[in-house]
UniProtKB/TrEMBL annotation:
It comes from Sulfurovum xiamenensis. Its EC number is 4.1.1.48. It holds the Pfam family IGPS. This is Indole-3-glycerol phosphate synthase. Residues 5-260 form the Indole-3-glycerol phosphate synthase domain. It catalyses: 1-(2-carboxyphenylamino)-1-deoxy-D-ribulose 5-phosphate + H(+) = (1S,2R)-1-C-(indol-3-yl)glycerol 3-phosphate + CO2 + H2O. Belongs to the TrpC family. InterPro entries: Aldolase_TIM, Indole-3-glycerol_P_synth, Indole-3-glycerol_P_synth_dom, Indole-3-GlycerolPSynthase_CS, RibuloseP-bd_barrel.
């Protein structure tokens, strides 16, 4: 496993130990029965169609391990509203607190004001975090194949589906892709960011997409900055495009979404 992933997961696990004591699992279950909600239709939002061929998952992220603080004036609700106005199809909400300065509370805050399917973007290694995702207002979760064994990935995937959450399984290479297919993933994300070097390999989609069985929803992730790249990735089979840093660095986020999605 890449060193940064190992570090993030160690920190995530030590935080989890504490959270499970402070907020036992039954509390999360109880908050769900007080505040039930119906998850949105994630697959319809992400699958490319003739009328809407470039599905955008716009990311709400303040910081990252590779770039440090990306956006100082960070208001997750205002950013989410600007994304929705610009035509985003879904939002990715970073909830990891130490390396990305995220917060799981952002899910509920954004959900109150924005009507798009929300991804809990975090380093999920435990069923407790899946239940949290549901309790805090996510419609789908990210599972990173490289961070999990084949058995763990399948168990977490099955658990999320059992709770009614969709799952985006992220892959970085062919080994990850085999694990994702074994887990029964129907939404597969190809992350161009090499987690050892933080370099982008935009040719990864070209290498992996032909190996993905028909019918899966394919998400191209990281390093996407312009409409031309979106068009090229779409031609080889990508349905949706996960974009973070490019949007977070813009003054006019709504205009940036329109430019990336529609090319104007
Ligand atoms: O972004 C990082 O530095 C990073 C480091 C370690 C693990 C994951 C990391 N990023 C998560 C993501 O994959 C991106 O937030 C997402 O794909 C959007 O990428 P970008 O458009 O390049 O911000």
């Amino acid at each position: 496993m890449a060193q940064i992933l190992d570090e993030i997961i160690k920190k995530t696990k030590s935080d989890l130990e504490k959270r499970k004591v402070d907020y036992p699992e039954e509390w999360l279950g109880r908050s769900l029965s007080f505040n039930p909600f119906i998850p949105k239709d994630v697959k319809s939002a992400l699958r490319a169609t003739e009328e809407n061929p470039y599905r955008i998952i716009a990311e709400v992220k303040k910081a990252s391990p590779s770039k440090g603080i990306i956006r100082e004036d960070f208001n997750p609700v205002e950013i989410a509203q600007a994304y929705e106005k610009g035509g985003a199809d879904s939002l990715s909400i970073l909830t990891e607190p130490h390396f990305f300065k995220g917060d799981k509370e952002y899910l509920g805050m954004v959900r109150r004001y924005v009507n798009l399917p929300l991804l809990r973007k975090d380093f999920i290694v435990d069923k407790y975090q899946v239940l949290e995702a549901l309790a805090f207002g996510a419609d789908y979760i990210l599972l990173i194949a490289m961070a999990l064994s084949r058995k763990e990935l399948k168990e977490l995937h099955d658990y999320a589906r059992h709770l009614g959450l969709d799952v985006l399984v992220e892959v970085h290479n062919k080994t990850d892709l085999v694990k994702a297919i074994f887990a029964g993933a129907d939404i597969i994300g190809i992350n161009h960011r090499n987690l050892e070097t933080f370099e982008m390999d935009m040719s990864l989609s070209e290498k992996l997409i032909p190996l993905i069985p028909n019918g899966k929803i394919i998400v191209a992730e990281s390093g996407i900055n312009d409409h031309e790249t979106v068009v090229e990735l779409s031609k080889i089979g990508a349905d949706a495009f996960l974009v973070g840093e490019h949007f977070m660095r813009q003054d006019d986020i709504t205009a940036a979404i329109k430019a990336l999605k529609y090319g104007n």
